[in-house]
Amino acid sequence: xxxxxxxxxxxxxxxxxxxxxxxxxxxxxxxxxxxxxxxxxxxxxxxxxxxxxxxxxxxxxxxxxxxxxxxxxxxxxxxxxxxxxxxxxxxxxxxxxxxxxxxxxxxxxxxxxxxxxxxxxxxxxxxxxxxxxxxxxxxxxxxxxxxxxxxxxxxxxxxxxxxxxxxxxxxxxxxxxxxxxxxxxxxxxxxxxxxxxxxxxxxxxxxxxxxxxxxxxxxxxxxxxxxxxxxxxxxxxxxxxxxxxxxxxxxxxxxxxxxxxxxxxxxxxxxxxxxxxxxxxxxxxxxxxxxxxxxxxxxxxxxxxxxxxxxxxxxxxxxxxxxxxxxxxxxxxxxxxxxxxxxxxxxxxxxxxxxxxxxxxxxxxxxxxxxxxxxxxxxxxxxxxxxxxxxxxxxxxxxxxxxxxxxxxxxxxxxxxxxxxxxxxxxxxxxxxxxxxxxxxxxxxxxxxxxxxxxxxxxxxxxxxxxxxxxxxxxxxxxxxxxxxxxxxxxxxxxxxxxxx
Length: 501
Ligand SMILES: [Zn+2]
Prior knowledge:
Blueprint: E1 6-9, E2 14-17, E3 25-30, H1 41-59, E4 63-68, H2 86-94, H3 98-115, H4 131-143, E5 147-150, E6 153-156, H5 158-164, H6 175-181, E7 197-202, E8 218-220, H7 222-234, E9 238-244, H8 248-263, E10 268-274, E11 277-279, E12 282-283, H9 294-299, H10 311-319, E13 327-329, H11 331-353, H12 364-379, H13 384-402, H14 410-427, H15 437-440, H16 445-467, H17 471-483, E14 486-491, E15 494-499
The structure holds zinc ion.
């Protein structure tokens, strides 16, 4: 922690030095998925962004409690307060228990996150498991006079709140903007004002997800869960709250209002938001036919996809852009990312068989500079594309050493292996040998290593055949391997190979 870490704070709209409230402890809350369908590319980005932050904060010595919720109730359709609960609706259509739907998609979400190399959070609280805490939050806001009851539902009184505090500080919207932007929902119905949002909703008779409360049998408003669970697990004041930029308004704005209305001040110091992913320049949406789930990316089973892409290709593609920049998906862009990742992983593999040279042309200074450049990028608001560009520079040097244009000293070689491993694998979370779909589709590192050894063994047989001038055997081994997609190169010291699949 000797170097200052800069993070961009959405609340202040500038990069700030990161100073946790209770160092070395850091509390980080990230909005998780609503589990009524498969995770899509838009879920991969926050998951990977905050995985990088989680990894780096731990690496520089912080003890991080990373909380990411599972929304299994209360997220109404179109983010509006009218309409059906998304999970209950899906359940009715499929004739399943709502919790069965939630569990099924939670499991699928975990599988996708695991494939993408995202570490599990420290706590993954479910909204349905925290109904009491959410009711307590609603009661505090009612007691403080910033909410009102209407037909058994409780609404947050945005206008009253705005007179004492300021509503809109995170998104930069004024109350007037908010009113204009809010959809006119059947003459506002139970609400006093368009901008008001539900804290508790009375359930209609047919509504199956419902809990008793002092106001009605019903369910909590969507924004309540993150305020209630963030406070429960990280305290009334904690360091980081994150999510996608699409959550800034209304979700996070409403969370700030709920926190201030209930406890008198804000809970969060740093609000961190990742930017969005567009698909061929368009926003992703079910109606546009460009809604691609993560399992579809991994299988290639979608009309927009030329073929399958490995989870590590998706991860690398996302990390090639800074988390606050937009990213545009296309098949070309993903295939370019796949090639780049392969180049990096090939260099890592080549690095393992390089022989050092005393007094070599690449010395320890080269590695120290590389390491500092990578650290500088990470300390500057987690700038992963800069880290990747430095790793590509190192790749060029590694390839020059392989081609005997350069040589490397023993201490530089060891240090280069360490720095490469630290940034590519430990901090960016890439996995060796995982660029191809085949490698990702169930072949783990140990199996892959065993397969690699079999190829080495065959090539040693071929070397022996060559030494015995048995050209027929030598060519046969090379041609058979080539037919399977192995590219064999003869070098001064023997051979190298790679699988072009
Ligand atoms: Zn949230």
